[in-house]
Task: structure prediction
Amino acid sequence: MNDLAAAFKIHRRTVRAVLTRHGVETRTRGLTDDQVSEAARLYEAGWSVARLGERYGVNGTTVWTCLRREGVALRRPWEQG
Result:
């Protein structure tokens, strides 16, 4: 979706909406329960959400959302490191 959005200079959500409208199934990317548990342990050990995103092949925001949903106390950006 990101490649299509860039190629047509439109937002990723617009790409998803067009694909959905035309009956194209898209996959939802995220983390498995095991990955969320591991990510929580690594985050608490000092890993950043960006680094975790690289590890799991997803955006750091995806990791942040999963950790938040899991109830992990998230650090402020200036508390990273």
